[in-house]
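Continuing the series of single-chain predictions for the mutant panel. This is the parent chain; the variants come on the following pages.
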Amino acid sequence: MRIDNNATADILFELTYEADRRRHTSRFFGRKANFWRDIFPRDMGERLQGLAAGQSVSLELAPGEDIPAHDPARIVTLPRAAFAPKPVNGRTLDPQPGRFYPQGVLQGLPGVYPSTRTPFRCLDVTAETIVCDRNHPLAGHPASLTATALDVREKGCETGGSLHVWGEELLDGPGLETRLPGRATVFLTEAGDLGRSDDAPDAAFYRHPRLLSHIDAKARERLTSLYAAILTPGDAVLDLMTSHLSHLPPTLPLAAVAGLGLNADELDANPALTSRTVHDLNADPTLPYPDAAVTAVLCAMSFEYLANPTAVLAEASRVLAPGGRLVISFSNRWFPQKAIRLWSELHEFERLGFVASLIEQTPGLGSVATLAERGWPRPADAKDRHWPLHQQSDPLFVVTARRMARGREG
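Parent structure:
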């Protein structure tokens, strides 16, 4: 069957853009796109007409047309006291250059209320003033958009209802992971940013095995597909902070998979591992492996627990061979008492920017790229404690980097 006004289709949208030497990709699963009433960017809806499952169309998005143009008038200087957020994690937040915040934390702006979630970017702050950029986070950035039909089916009786403005849904989040041109975003300002509500030794918390999945089956499938696209046969892999699952493609022949985690029973239950090391990176960030020992370092659903991520990234750079890949992935689920306080204070997309900035400050690592995947339907799984309450799959956020030649910095 082909797409027409009497059909609905599941569409995978892929938005790509570059900003200040980073390449960003955002994938969004659009369920039951309705070609009779939905609104697509520019002429994409018309160009999708006639396509069958597996076929794609692409569109270059131009600032001022499909993406908002950057408007200098939307940059405003306010009294510093206008920034008045509620405490988070028991902490009073101070605005930092480059960071994003919901406009609802600003007082005295016409049409802005405490519930307003539209983001603004802090450009500068002094004791007296704060400079706020209220432009869309992607304003002024050209981007490419590809839409792929995944499934096309005949539409039932048209009964009205809501419509999707796909451009608005696709652009809700992207851009928050970018940095100001030529300037580093200030994420870490005090020791409390990396503190945790439970600062007891991690060995005690992880004494008993937790043989659970941190993400649902669809998100695990997407992470495995990502690994399949990044890893190559014969790679020597180090899986950091791992458990009983490594999410590796089962048919990909790897030279070795070393697993480092906190619980021996969890590591023993992981069939992908060829060696196992119990080691607490928060007690000692040193990795017990030689220089250039592996061609890939993976860290899935655990980066938010690192109390010294800078030291761990430096170690990851050390053990990676030139050309090797670093892959850090996370979602929106974690053990809150063990995650660093800053993590929950960041927007999902801004966490990509935080991880990317730490990597860019690590000698030897470069070619940083980010990926976000959202909107996939959650599989009906009786073992999933979040189904059927949650119908969408857990989002997947990934930052990748490459180990540069020895003596070079990325």
